[in-house]
Amino acid sequence: MTTFLSASDMENSNVPDAPLAPETMQQSGLTLGFLNDMILRTLYVRGSMIGRDLALYLCLPFKVIRDPLKFLKDEKCIQIDGGDLVGEVSYKFSLTDLGRKRATEAMQVCAYVGPAPVPLEDYVEQTYRQAVTGILCYPETLQAPFSHLVLRDELFNAIGPAIISGRSVFIYGPPGNGKTAIARSIGEFMNTAGGAIYIPHAFVADGNIITMYDPSLHQIDDPGVDGSDDSDASVRRLLSTGTLDARWVRIRRPVIVVGGELNLDMLDLRYNDEAKFYQAPIHFKANGGVFLIDDFGRQLVSPKELLNRWILPLEDRHDFLTVASGKKFQVPFEQLIIFSTNLDPKALVDDAFLRRIRHKVEINAPTRETYEAIFNSVCRRLGMNTCPEAIDYMYERYYSQGRSPRASDCRDLLEIVQSICRYRRQPIHLTRDLMVESAATFIAEFK
């Protein structure tokens, strides 16, 4: 069982209890045989290594791998090529001929080399410690992440309860009116007010290694926690008592966005046939944060199939992962999942599915007052003068003639004006004539 460092003992009180480094092999949750194979594979791939470097690479204190190293030496699988008076941590270990044979056999079973995994039970326990439902949300704390958006009060006040629930949210309405921007702002709120969380590099379930940390999706919150800071500090952690477990990475709450590319295969474990280990599915990597399905209803797979896949997770807050042998493992489904769509929800799913999506937030086309506020806000952001005549033209020529105004029109039109001015080497200055030119470029009127 993993022990934890209380969040109250850490600098950031928003950070959940952190896993403490194991003192013994038993506390690591890994068996002697498992660690033996990891050490053999590591030395096979990386060549001879000093004891402390091997511990650093495996993200385990040296005292945890001391017994496996002794066992492998007694079995004549490794040898000591040298060292100094510092002790065993300075010994240089390499494979013998027998060790290379055993390492080759271990590689055929699983070729994973890297930070040692944590047990599935420890991952599950840590995930529930940092649940999205535990984030405090008040109007004043929610304002900053949404300050760049112009929202009606009733819309803004509907978002807070949805965040607090930690349940599913359906954001719908015509395109170009800020659905994705609102969803991303919810993610920014999670990042700032929600604090950091801990995820493992990998975890092990019934001997199957499943990688979790993904640098392309997860943003490290504090480099000093995951062992990526200076080597002297890393060594001190691995030789000391009561330090953080380097197998875990401290990250900002993840915000993972998928669109039309989403399919059912992405929601299952991905098995590497050559390396013989798994990668966690994309929605699983969003645990503790936000999983945004943008353009819901436009995926290759039907909305009904997607929601059928999530009936149990949406209701019970847990999911199942299935390995190649067919064995299933229960895992947390602890995330705020947001469905964003331009389509009519009733045309996508039936009432039974909509009932499972707790919060429905409709975002309609902006009123003229809201449109003007957005337009002027974009002008300020681009360092451009406001121009009521430009807005008048858009309403006279387009919005009063059947085209629905979109909040995104403001940004798109004004950025075209900015580009025109730069191309002509003239000061960026908005006029009605430039808006006429910009709109003619942006709004294609096909004959």
From TrEMBL:
Record field: compositional bias (Polar residues): 1-15
Give me the ranges of the annotated region Disordered. 1-21
Highest taxon above the source species:
Bacteria
TM ranges? none
Q: Which residues form the AAA+ ATPase domain?
A: 165-367
Q: What is this protein called?
A: Predicted ATPase protein with chaperone activity
Q: Which organism is it from?
A: Tuwongella immobilis
